[in-house]
């Protein structure tokens, strides 16, 4: 193998996982570079500014108090967190009926409420049996992985209203239809967060100055080690090392850390090819579709109507809205999330029609004033070639139980990270950080051998 440079580790991807791995390697005096396809770091974290310089997040935004690594980063970098606005009623647009409620559960009939409780309890109980770092080893893995999440919910619920409510909140969490996802995949998500209740509290705080501030802080000491606009396209490897190709350059290295999500691993040409389990896993993985929009208004007018800005809806196209208005400037900012089929359907429409549909949905939820935003921002993550969807990869039936171990199993000098590989808070920023910590330990240990 001939290449230009000798380096201990090449990290592929400057998202949160890659940047965390780099920080950890730096502590161990291991030499490394980061190759990043985009012209910016952060991957699925992407902040921008409104006309009057209010930071907004078009990618990852919220964290929960149980996410200790993200909380630690916020405190270490002195980044202010804003609690998600919760004064007033949450809206539920469920089965064409609109309900206002205090808290996160709509007022349902006593029978439906009991069913919701039973379903949540069942999901927690089953998830408890899954090892968060190896769900495929669980006794219930095969059985759960045969079933879509939709089948699981229908099997354990005897109330259409209860299953409609559970479907609504989980489909928002995953950006996918329940029939697309394996029950094992979702139970693994629950286990990695602790409980379903913890998973549902992941949107408790947001970074006042944008989540990208975390990335800005992380890249500060790494600037000379990151090569932007260097998509890795080819990796030649043997047991003792690899040559990594990005553009016309190549780097000879002892170890490679790949942090790109499994769907994008398929875009890299490996020589020799990856083991067939790894290839199968990557080829059977994909991101759900998601579009994130930000509507900026002259004030958070919904608060005057006694609403807190959070609205869940099973009527297309809007799935979820959350108030992201600044506490210190009186502007109204409504974050709008559109996932799954709705995201695909409206992405096919031309811009004007798409926005009319979204505005129409907001008017139905919040009244006429919603039709008059000052500014609108939109990011269709499915169209972004360096991500291809969001929030994270979810597997359909039969994938995790058969090919799951290959997700984290090193292949010669190649080690895997990224939120998709996390055992804590997989699919979240917290999971990306945890995977970066895990992989750097793994690599440092194996370099010492
Ligand atoms: C719309 C949206 C909203 C979200 N909201 C939240 C939220 O509120 N809270 C939360 O915790 N999480 C949220 N998430 C999920 C969160 O963004 C991710 O879990 C996390 O950022 C993943 O980090 P990562 O480093 O694992 O992967 P990524 O951020 O995807 O990083 C991978 C990096 O690899 C690069 N790359 C890809 N291919 C190559 C290649 N061939 N060569 C070199 N580089 C390559 C990419 O450009 C990218 O920078 C959201 C995601 C989306 C899309």
TrEMBL record:
Q: Give yes or no: UniProt keyword Oxidoreductase.
A: yes
Which keywords belong to this entry? Oxidoreductase
Q: Is Oxidoreductase one of the keywords UniProt gives this record?
A: yes
GO MF entry, a single one: oxidoreductase activity
* Pfam families per the UniProt record, alphabetical: Amino_oxidase
Cofactor(s) for this UniProt protein:
FAD
InterPro entries named among the record's database cross-references = Amino_oxidase, FAD/NAD-bd_sf, Flavin_amine_oxidase, Flavin_MAO
**Record domain Amine oxidase: where:** 16-443
**Which amino acid positions bind FAD, per UniProt?**
36-37, 232, 420
The UniProt family comment states:
Belongs to the flavin monoamine oxidase family.
Output the PANTHER family linked to this UniProt entry. Answer: AMINE OXIDASE, AMINE OXIDASE [FLAVIN-CONTAINING] B
The name on file for this protein is: Amine oxidase domain-containing protein
Record organism? Halalkalibacter okhensis
């Amino acid at each position: 193998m001939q290449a230009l440079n000798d380096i201990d580790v090449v990290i592929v991807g400057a998202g949160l996982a890659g940047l965390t791995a780099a920080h950890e390697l730096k502590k161990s005096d291991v030499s490394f570079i980061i190759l990043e396809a985009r012209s910016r770091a952060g991957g699925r974290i992407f902040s921008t500014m409104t006309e009057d310089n209010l930071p907004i997040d078009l990618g990852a935004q919220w964290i929960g108090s149980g996410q200790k690594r993200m909380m630690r980063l916020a405190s270490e970098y002195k980044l202010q967190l804003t609690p998600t606005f919760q004064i007033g009623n949450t809206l539920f647009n469920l089965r064409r009926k609109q309900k206002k409620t205090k808290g996160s559960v709509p007022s349902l009939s006593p029978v439906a409420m009991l069913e919701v409780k039973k379903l949540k309890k069942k999901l927690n109980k089953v998830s408890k049996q899954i090892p968060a770092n190896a769900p495929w080893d669980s006794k219930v893995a095969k059985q759960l992985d045969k079933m879509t999440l939709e089948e699981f919910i229908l099997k354990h619920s005897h109330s259409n209203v209860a299953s409609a409510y559970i479907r609504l909140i989980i489909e928002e969490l995953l950006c996918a239809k329940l029939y697309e996802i394996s029950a094992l995949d979702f139970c693994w998500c629950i286990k990695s967060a602790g409980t379903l209740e913890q998973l549902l509290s992941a949107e408790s705080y947001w970074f006042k100055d944008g989540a990208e501030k975390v990335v800005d802080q992380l890249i500060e000491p790494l600037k000379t080690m990151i090569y932007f606009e260097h998509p890795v396209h080819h990796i030649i490897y043997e047991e003792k090392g690899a040559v990594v190709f990005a553009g016309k350059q190549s780097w000879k290295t002892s170890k490679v850390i790949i942090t790109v999500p499994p769907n994008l691993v398929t875009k890299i040409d490996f020589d020799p090819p990856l083991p067939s389990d790894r290839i199968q896993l990557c080829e059977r993985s994909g991101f759900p579709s998601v579009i994130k929009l930000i509507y900026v208004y002259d004030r958070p007018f919904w608060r005057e109507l006694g609403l807190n800005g959070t609205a869940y809806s099973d009527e297309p196209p809007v799935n979820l809205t959350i108030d992201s208005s600044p506490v210190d400037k009186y502007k109204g900012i409504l974050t709008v999330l559109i996932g799954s089929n709705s995201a695909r359907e409206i992405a096919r429409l031309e811009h004007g029609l798409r926005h009319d549909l979204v505005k129409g949905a907001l008017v139905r939820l919040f009244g006429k004033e919603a039709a008059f935003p000052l500014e609108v921002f939109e990011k269709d993550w499915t169209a972004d070639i360096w991500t291809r969807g969001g929030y994270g990869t979810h597997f359909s039936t039969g994938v995790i139980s058969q090919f799951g171990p290959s997700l984290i199993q090193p292949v010669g000098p190649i080690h895997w990270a990224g939120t998709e590989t996390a055992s804590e808070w997989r699919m979240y920023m917290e999971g990306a950080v945890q995977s970066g910590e895990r992989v750097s330990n793994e690599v440092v240990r194996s370099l010492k051998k």
